[in-house]
Design goal:
The complex is a heterodimer of chains A (about 625) and B (about 200).
Chain A: H1 3-13, H2 17-28, H3 34-40, H4 46-50, E1 53-54, E2 62-63, H5 81-115, H6 127-136, H7 146-159, H8 169-173, H9 177-186, H10 193-203, H11 212-242, E3 248-252, E4 262-267, H12 271-281, H13 284-292, E5 298-303, H14 304-314, E6 318-320, H15 325-330, E7 336-339, H16 348-352, E8 358-361, E9 372-373, H17 381-395, E10 411-415, H18 419-425, H19 431-439, E11 444-448, H20 460-471, E12 474-478, H21 480-488, H22 502-511, E13 516-518, H23 525-539, E14 548-552, H24 558-569, E15 573-576, H25 586-600, E16 604-606, H26 610-628
Parallel strand pairs in A: 4-5, 4-7, 5-6, 7-8, 8-9, 11-12, 11-14, 12-13, 14-15, 15-16
Antiparallel strand pairs in A: 1-2, 3-10
Chain B: E1 2-6, H1 16-24, H2 31-34, E2 46-49, E3 55-58, H3 67-71, E4 77-80, E5 85-88, H4 98-102, E6 110-111, E7 122-123, H5 130-134, H6 140-144, E8 150-154, H7 155-174, H8 184-199
Antiparallel strand pairs in B: 1-8, 2-3, 4-5, 6-7
Classes of the chains: A alpha/beta (about 625), B alpha+beta (about 200).
Chain lengths: ~625, ~200
């Protein structure tokens, strides 16, 4: 292909400078990427995009014509567009909630095994947090060993996945009273993690819930069982096992790969695997082994949220976010990509087959044809981690130096802003932040979260929105792919205060922190909930009264639907950059973008243009400030 | 003469017409059978992406006079007088592509079809579902279209009915009544996708 045309294509696909270099290489080498597959999928079915396609039962598949005067108005079972759209949304949401919560459960199970002395390589690192959580759960700590406490805590949490207890501790002890009252009134207090998910799956069966309002209320309840349940457990217990994140400096983009080292990319979401690989990679015998194969050492790089987990706690550099996964392989410099689960392209082994890269799958839940499966179990975790690293080292001599290209400039970044760190930085109380908001130095705060989606130029939505908001003196906190986008764009540095408005800049400069704070992985959106809850409690208001908002400018996944819904159900105005599959039902669309505000205080908006999204977020924050009298 | 009239504002890109067309022109005429046939059946109607995620179902318009018929050196293209359809005699087709060069809609391409027993490619364009028409049924693509983007009928009849709609909407608007041509959900969705198109590689 013509050099100029390739450059044009690349410019349309991403704003990540390092990714551009490798995307160009990938195109020239004929490597297929998600962008090519998106193009090949055009046009995408309108029934699906509008949410009016129901492919649930064998009387169907059915679709409702979005044109009222022509075509079918009910499925074979009689479901209307409203019913079908609401059921489809609940189905997507329950999948997302299940993904977060199943991840959470696995971490709690590792805590249990560690407490029982049955795991290998894990330890209870943050004892102080363990005790704090135990107190919250009413578990005695005096005179007890950390293992005894951890066992009781793990069992108490696992119980909340079941249906005997029927309430979730975090959803009870953490939200402000006013927010809990709102949930009670709406009948959406989550009862158990698994119960809401299973009930959601039940409700979407033919002949169960046909009332779109009732379906959507349960969707909100299910999302709360994720945000204040499964996801929050994932965050808290990861902190207990691997340490609560503290500010840490590192580097990001494909340039973190090293020419002379064995490059291992850790891709997926669960730190249970990646933290053990980090531990094993420091083993002197493995470093020696790498040297014996001609490498200078072992270089780990994170990808997606498992990357965020090891960045937050160990400062391991990040190769990038979701749309960088194929490009990492296309550098020709990756010996192994180790995957756990979620957001891993099923075609990743096909991409790897064009290079020497080995894909190593580790979860029994997530196998990919063409991958080497080395199953990870807590009981043998450290041994497996060492074996995996050895396999990567053995692959180093197979690298073809003629096909290697590594971008030259990784970007420096700062991460590790857990809830605890932010509170500590403010002097142990949120009062200074509230004062800064009251004085108008900081107008409000926004959580920018979510994925990459090739429909939007990679990182453009995230970075443009974050820049717009900090310019308007709005503090930004981020997780997931959004945080990585900001990292690549240099926004996660204290120096980025220069891009912020005067008020915000003065506050973050005095604290020595960036104006955009990296709070972790996508399950760590639960850290944002706790932050909002404690600020609201200190002010004596509901979360919905705060001058705050959420945004997911480039979202793609069902997990993002669950996050968006628990933001909204917790009272947060949330702006999506791409429309959810609901627009075939004006009733559902109106309810989620207008009516729901009267029920839970939060609502959705859809605005792809990040500058306009910043406008509506700013207007919302101004409205909330006025209502608070500040 | 009846034609497949396209109302592009109603096309939502589901490509149902493409599948129905491919199945109709397969040997088995069965969705599940069609996938196992060799050569694999292909659609003769093409829903492709234009600007801003908008689509247009493009197919043979069965022109009169038909440029393709005019230039065909072997007389493979001929008209069915009863339905006015332009058809291809696969035995006579030599795949010279003269027809494809003059087609105003660029809908002629060549491939192997099950109707011809030996190894050659032919112009496999839309045959107006001539077999179905003879049975008094509408073309497969029209039957499959659930949004009314494809309508089968006498062109003047179809136009008369849309003209009436237009008059109705215009007079309603003069009376201050809301009379949108398209439902609000579709309008809102397209406005959003227009923005998405300009923010991504598909713009």
């Amino acid at each position: 292909m013509d050099v100029k045309i390739v450059k044009e294509i690349v410019e349309m696909r991403t704003i990540d400078e390092a990714a551009k270099e490798i995307l160009e290489k990938a195109i020239n080498e004929g490597i297929e990427t998600a962008w090519d597959r998106l193009e090949a999928q055009q046009p995408q079915c309108g029934f699906g995009q509008l949410g009016v396609c129901c492919n649930r039962c064998a009387m169907g598949p059915c679709r409702i014509s979005p044109f009222e005067d022509e075509g079918p108005t009910r499925g074979v079972c009689g479901a209307t567009a409203d019913t079908i759209v609401a059921r489809n949304l609940l189905d997507d949401l329950l999948v997302g909630a299940a993904a977060h919560s199943d991840h959470g459960r696995e971490i709690v199970e590792v805590l249990l095994k560690t407490a029982e002395g049955k795991s290998q390589g894990y330890e209870i690192l943050d004892v102080e947090k363990l005790k704090r959580l135990a107190k919250e759960y009413g578990i005695g700590t005096d005179g007890r060993s950390k293992e005894e406490i951890a066992k009781d805590l793990a069992l108490a949490m696992l119980e909340e996945f079941g249906t005997v207890k029927n309430w979730i501790q975090f959803a009870e002890s953490r939200p402000p009273e006013k927010t809990k009252e709102i949930w009670k009134k709406a009948g959406i207090v989550p009862r158990s993690v698994d119960r809401e998910i299973v009930e959601a799956a039940h409700r979407v069966h033919m002949g169960v819930d046909a009332d779109y309002v009732n379906i959507l209320l349960h969707a909100l309840r299910t999302s709360l069982s994720d945000g204040w349940g499964g996801s929050m457990m994932a965050t808290e217990i990861s902190d207990v096992l691997f340490g609560t994140p503290k500010p840490v400096e590192s580097y990001i983009n494909l340039g973190v790969l090293k020419k002379d080292m064995v490059n291992i990319v850790l891709h997926g979401h669960n730190p249970v695997l990646s933290m053990m690989i980090v531990k094993a990679a420091g083993d002197p015998s493995l470093v020696e082994y790498a040297k014996s194969k001609g490498a200078a050492g072992i270089n780990l790089a994170g990808m997606c949220c498992t990357g965020n987990e090891i960045l937050m706690r160990q400062g391991i550099p990040l190769a990038g976010n979701m749309l960088n996964q194929e490009l990492a392989i296309a550098t020709g410099a990756v010996e192994a990509m180790i995957i756990d689960y979620q957001c891993i392209f099923p075609s990743i082994t096909f991409t790897a087959s064009c290079y020497h890269t080995k894909i190593i799958s580790t979860s029994e839940k997530a196998k990919i044809p063409g991958a080497i499966h080395m199953e990870f179990h807590p009981e043998t975790a450290y041994d497996t981690a060492k074996e995996i690293i050895k396999l990567a080292i053995d692959n180093f001599p197979n690298r073809n130096p003629d096909r290697v290209k590594i971008p030259s400039k990784p970007v420096k970044m700062m991460a590790g802003f857990s809830y605890e760190v932010i509170k500590e930085a403010l002097g142990g109380s949120f009062k200074p932040l509230i004062d800064a908001i009251a004085s108008g130095k900081i107008k409000g705060a926004v959580g920018i979260v979510g994925c990459n989606n090739p429909k939007i130029k990679q990182d453009y939505g995230h970075v443009t929105l974050a820049k717009e908001l900090i310019k308007r003196n709005i503090l930004v906190v981020e997780t997931g792919c959004a945080a990585m986008a900001s990292g690549k764009a240099g926004l996660l540095l204290p120096e980025a205060a220069d891009m912020a408005g005067e008020g915000l800049a003065s506050v973050v400069r005095s604290l020595g922190i960036p104006p955009v704070l990296h709070m972790g992985s996508c399950v760590d959106c639960s850290r944002i909930l706790v932050l909002l809850a404690d600020i609201a409690k200190e002010m004596g208001v509901a979360i919905s009264d705060l001058p705050a908002a959420g945004a997911a400018p480039e979202w793609y996944s069902q997990k993002a639907i669950s996050i968006g819904a628990y933001f909204v159900a917790s009272g947060v105005f949330t702006v999506l950059g791409l429309p959810p599959k609901i627009m075939g039902s004006p009733n559902v669309t109106k309810l989620l973008t207008e009516g729901v505000e009267g029920v839970v205080g939060g609502k959705f908006a859809v605005e792809p243009d990040p500058v306009k999204a910043a406008d509506i977020i700013e207007a919302h924050i101004e409205k909330k400030r006025k209502a608070l009298g500040i | 003469m009846k034609t497949v009239f396209v109302r592009p504002e109603r096309c939502i890109g589901c490509r149902h017409c493409e599948i129905a067309c491919a199945v109709e022109h397969s040997r088995s005429r069965d969705l599940f059978g069609a996938f196992f046939e060799e050569p694999k059946p292909s659609p003769r109607i093409h829903v492709e992406l234009g600007v801003e995620f908008l689509t247009f179902p493009n197919k043979c318009r069965h022109c009169e006079p038909a440029p393709c018929m005019e230039v065909c050196p072997t007389g493979a293209l001929y008209r069915d007088e009863e339905t006015g359809s332009v058809l291809v005699n696969y035995d006579k087709c030599i795949a010279c592509a003269m027809c494809a060069m003059v087609c105003p809609f660029d809908i002629i391409s060549f491939k192997k079809v099950w109707h011809v027993n030996f190894l050659k490619t032919v112009n496999y364009k839309c045959d107006h579902c001539i077999d179905r028409q003879r049975e008094g049924r509408e073309p497969a693509c029209v039957e499959a279209c659930k949004t009314g983007a494809l309508v089968f009928g006498e062109v003047n009849e179809i136009i008369r009915s849309s003209r009436k709609d237009f008059t109705l909407r215009t007079t309603k608007a003069l009376e201050g009544e809301e009379a949108p041509e398209l439902p609000e959900g579709i309008v809102a969705f397209r406005e959003i996708m227009k923005k998405v198109a300009h923010l991504g590689p598909l713009g």
